[in-house]
Design brief:
Elements lengths: L1 E5 L4 H5 L3 E3 L4 E5 L4 E2 L15 H11 L7 E5 L5 E5 L1 H12 L6 E3 L2 E3 L6 H8 L5 E5 L2 H10 L9 H8 L3 H10 L7 H7 L8 H11 L3 H8 L6 H17 L12 H8 L6 H13 L9 H6 L15 H18 L5 H4 L15 E5 L14 E5 H7 L3
Parallel strand pairs: 4-6, 5-9
Antiparallel strand pairs: 1-9, 2-3, 3-4, 5-6, 7-8, 10-11
Length: about 400
Amino acid sequence: MKTTLHTDWTVGDICKGFIFDQNENKGLYGLDGQLIIQPEYQRNYIYGDKNKKDVAVVESLLKGYPLGLIYFVKNADGMYEVLDGQQRITSFARFVNKSWPFAVNWKGKTRYIDSLDTDDRKRITEAPLTIYVCEGEPSEIQEWFETINIAGVELSKQERRNASYHGPFVTKARAMFSNTGNSNMNRWRTYVAGNPNRQAILETALDWVSEGKIDDYMAKHRNDTNIDELAKYFETVINWIDSIFDYTGDEVRGLEWGRLYRQYHTNAYSKDKVTKRVEELLEDTQVTDRRGVFEFILGREQTVSLLNIRVFDQKTQKTVYEKQTKKAKENGFSNCPLCSVGHDANKTRIYKQNEMEADHVTAWSKGGATDISNCQMLCKTHNRAKGNR
């Protein structure tokens, strides 16, 4: 990858032709139309703390402080895109160009750009910037993202991918999956975790359709002018979830729905029966992993470990152990009930408590409760062999 250091560009140069879109809350262009300030991979403008950080950027320039390194990517068509520095550029350009203006406190007074003295305005507009321009292949750009220490809020992995594979496919995909104004966003976020502005919804959609091979998929489709396959697959998974589950609580957000769809979408389910079973399991105090309920049901309730059924507490285990051991010693057989009915050397063995594990006499799946009346202590070998019988 080729990198070129520029120290000849000033704040004024970057501000020339600056456009800020208040509806989309982002700076669009600068450098007299040569710079795309918020390309596909950049997050939305996030200095939303009542302009405090915007003010800090401008006051730094007035005091002669450097703003730190800024990174651009140079595209094949000669256009530049902001790799890192979008927040800082948008802040000083908003102030200089009076786009969604804000004031700073300078020399004891509230000042807008027009009310600054001429020398103070020049101190801002003629301030030199330190900018690295990067050129290279997508893999090189992504490696650059992942290895350098970029100032400000670190880009997410999907934002870095968007930079590496920028093009018509990413543009259309972001327009659909990163647009918080999309009428489907609330529905999608019922099942998908993360911030759309940080590309979480897009990353999930790509993960589902590519079966986890996001980079391969983006490389293959980089120059596609439509996202039909991506959109159709994502909506198919969402519709499949809706067709089975009525429940929309926090427990369903962020589950591995792509994997679950691939594994179970050919099975038939009764939505009414599923709804009733979800309610039962979520109300069951023995179930400690509520998020596991949904895969448990999809898998025909075969994998009880998904629910992390509540275990017997230490007090119960000690009480049951002492009771079993006392009885076993009195009768001359093992304190493990299953060993005591065997025919090997363990038939009369008395185990220490740390050699035994608590077990449900009647399995939870068959209605057994996690209380002292349903507890027995088994040697580890028999308990682990017993399973859910």
